[in-house]
Request: fold
Amino acid sequence: MSSVKRVGPGEAKELIDAGYTYVDVRSEPEFDAGHPLGALNVPIAHMTAGAMVTNHDFLTVMTAVFAKDTPLVVGCKAGGRSLRAAQMLLDAGFTDVIDQRAGFDGAPGAFGATDPGWSKLGLPVETGPTAGATYVEVKARGR
Reply:
Protein backbone atom coordinates (compact mmCIF):
# COMPACT_ATOMS: atom_id res chain seq x y z
CA MET A 1 0.00 0.00 0.00
CA SER A 2 1.56 3.25 -1.20
CA SER A 3 1.34 6.40 0.83
CA VAL A 4 -0.73 9.18 -0.77
CA LYS A 5 1.16 12.35 -1.61
CA ARG A 6 -0.92 15.40 -0.62
CA VAL A 7 -0.47 18.96 -1.90
CA GLY A 8 -2.20 22.28 -1.33
CA PRO A 9 -4.40 23.93 -3.96
CA GLY A 10 -1.62 26.19 -5.26
CA GLU A 11 0.72 23.26 -5.89
CA ALA A 12 -2.17 21.30 -7.44
CA LYS A 13 -2.69 24.18 -9.90
CA GLU A 14 1.02 24.07 -10.79
CA LEU A 15 0.77 20.31 -11.42
CA ILE A 16 -2.27 20.81 -13.67
CA ASP A 17 -0.41 23.51 -15.59
CA ALA A 18 2.43 20.97 -16.01
CA GLY A 19 0.11 18.32 -17.51
CA TYR A 20 -1.70 16.57 -14.65
CA THR A 21 -5.44 15.91 -15.03
CA TYR A 22 -7.64 17.12 -12.16
CA VAL A 23 -10.35 14.61 -11.24
CA ASP A 24 -13.05 16.05 -8.98
CA VAL A 25 -14.51 13.16 -6.98
CA ARG A 26 -17.44 15.13 -5.52
CA SER A 27 -21.04 14.38 -6.47
CA GLU A 28 -22.46 15.69 -9.74
CA PRO A 29 -24.48 18.52 -8.10
CA GLU A 30 -21.41 19.66 -6.13
CA PHE A 31 -19.32 19.62 -9.32
CA ASP A 32 -21.95 21.63 -11.22
CA ALA A 33 -22.05 24.24 -8.44
CA GLY A 34 -18.35 25.02 -9.05
CA HIS A 35 -15.13 23.17 -9.79
CA PRO A 36 -11.52 23.83 -10.75
CA LEU A 37 -11.12 24.99 -14.34
CA GLY A 38 -10.54 21.95 -16.57
CA ALA A 39 -11.54 19.37 -13.94
CA LEU A 40 -13.27 16.12 -14.87
CA ASN A 41 -16.00 14.69 -12.64
CA VAL A 42 -15.85 11.08 -11.47
CA PRO A 43 -17.74 10.91 -8.15
CA ILE A 44 -16.58 8.50 -5.48
CA ALA A 45 -20.11 8.80 -4.03
CA HIS A 46 -23.51 9.95 -5.30
CA MET A 47 -25.76 12.38 -3.48
CA THR A 48 -29.21 11.00 -2.68
CA ALA A 49 -32.01 12.34 -0.52
CA GLY A 50 -30.19 12.95 2.74
CA ALA A 51 -27.19 10.67 2.25
CA MET A 52 -24.10 9.97 0.17
CA VAL A 53 -24.05 6.53 -1.46
CA THR A 54 -20.85 4.87 -2.70
CA ASN A 55 -20.35 4.96 -6.46
CA HIS A 56 -19.51 1.31 -7.09
CA ASP A 57 -18.42 2.22 -10.65
CA PHE A 58 -15.67 4.64 -9.51
CA LEU A 59 -12.68 2.33 -10.07
CA THR A 60 -14.23 0.78 -13.18
CA VAL A 61 -14.69 4.19 -14.80
CA MET A 62 -11.26 5.46 -13.75
CA THR A 63 -9.55 2.33 -15.10
CA ALA A 64 -11.51 2.47 -18.37
CA VAL A 65 -10.80 6.18 -18.96
CA PHE A 66 -7.24 6.63 -17.70
CA ALA A 67 -4.06 4.64 -18.22
CA LYS A 68 -2.55 3.57 -14.90
CA ASP A 69 0.42 5.92 -15.46
CA THR A 70 -1.70 9.02 -16.19
CA PRO A 71 -0.64 11.86 -13.88
CA LEU A 72 -3.73 12.65 -11.78
CA VAL A 73 -4.63 15.16 -9.08
CA VAL A 74 -7.81 14.25 -7.20
CA GLY A 75 -9.86 16.69 -5.19
CA CYS A 76 -13.20 16.97 -3.41
CA LYS A 77 -14.89 19.45 -1.05
CA ALA A 78 -12.60 19.34 1.99
CA GLY A 79 -10.06 16.55 1.35
CA GLY A 80 -11.65 13.44 2.88
CA ARG A 81 -13.20 11.84 -0.19
CA SER A 82 -10.23 12.68 -2.40
CA LEU A 83 -7.79 11.11 0.06
CA ARG A 84 -9.91 7.94 0.02
CA ALA A 85 -10.11 8.05 -3.81
CA ALA A 86 -6.36 8.58 -4.18
CA GLN A 87 -5.64 5.59 -1.93
CA MET A 88 -8.10 3.43 -3.90
CA LEU A 89 -6.41 4.41 -7.17
CA LEU A 90 -2.91 3.69 -5.85
CA ASP A 91 -4.10 0.34 -4.46
CA ALA A 92 -5.57 -0.43 -7.93
CA GLY A 93 -2.17 0.10 -9.57
CA PHE A 94 -2.28 3.75 -10.61
CA THR A 95 1.24 5.12 -10.27
CA ASP A 96 1.01 8.93 -10.29
CA VAL A 97 -1.89 10.06 -8.10
CA ILE A 98 -1.75 13.15 -5.89
CA ASP A 99 -4.44 14.28 -3.45
CA GLN A 100 -5.29 17.98 -3.32
CA ARG A 101 -5.81 18.43 0.40
CA ALA A 102 -8.31 21.07 1.59
CA GLY A 103 -10.47 20.39 -1.46
CA PHE A 104 -12.58 22.99 -3.21
CA ASP A 105 -13.98 24.72 -0.11
CA GLY A 106 -11.31 24.22 2.54
CA ALA A 107 -10.65 21.88 5.43
CA PRO A 108 -10.41 22.27 9.18
CA GLY A 109 -6.84 22.87 10.20
CA ALA A 110 -5.08 22.84 13.54
CA PHE A 111 -6.78 24.56 16.47
CA GLY A 112 -9.94 25.45 14.52
CA ALA A 113 -8.18 27.33 11.73
CA THR A 114 -9.21 26.55 8.16
CA ASP A 115 -6.85 25.34 5.46
CA PRO A 116 -8.25 27.28 2.47
CA GLY A 117 -9.43 25.27 -0.52
CA TRP A 118 -9.19 25.90 -4.25
CA SER A 119 -12.11 28.36 -4.45
CA LYS A 120 -11.02 30.35 -1.38
CA LEU A 121 -7.59 31.02 -2.90
CA GLY A 122 -9.05 32.60 -6.04
CA LEU A 123 -7.80 29.85 -8.35
CA PRO A 124 -9.69 29.48 -11.68
CA VAL A 125 -13.21 28.05 -11.31
CA GLU A 126 -15.98 26.96 -13.67
CA THR A 127 -19.64 26.47 -12.82
CA GLY A 128 -22.36 24.40 -14.43
CA PRO A 129 -22.13 21.10 -16.25
CA THR A 130 -18.99 21.81 -18.28
CA ALA A 131 -19.05 20.20 -21.75
CA GLY A 132 -16.90 17.07 -21.86
CA ALA A 133 -16.22 17.11 -18.12
CA THR A 134 -19.47 15.82 -16.62
CA TYR A 135 -19.59 12.35 -15.10
CA VAL A 136 -21.92 11.09 -17.84
CA GLU A 137 -19.48 12.26 -20.53
CA VAL A 138 -16.34 11.04 -18.76
CA LYS A 139 -17.96 7.67 -18.11
CA ALA A 140 -18.89 7.39 -21.82
CA ARG A 141 -15.19 7.79 -22.79
CA GLY A 142 -14.46 4.43 -21.25
CA ARG A 143 -16.95 2.49 -23.30
The chain has one domain: 5-141. The chain is about 30% helix and 25% strand. The mean pLDDT is 94. The two ends are 29 Å apart (CA to CA).
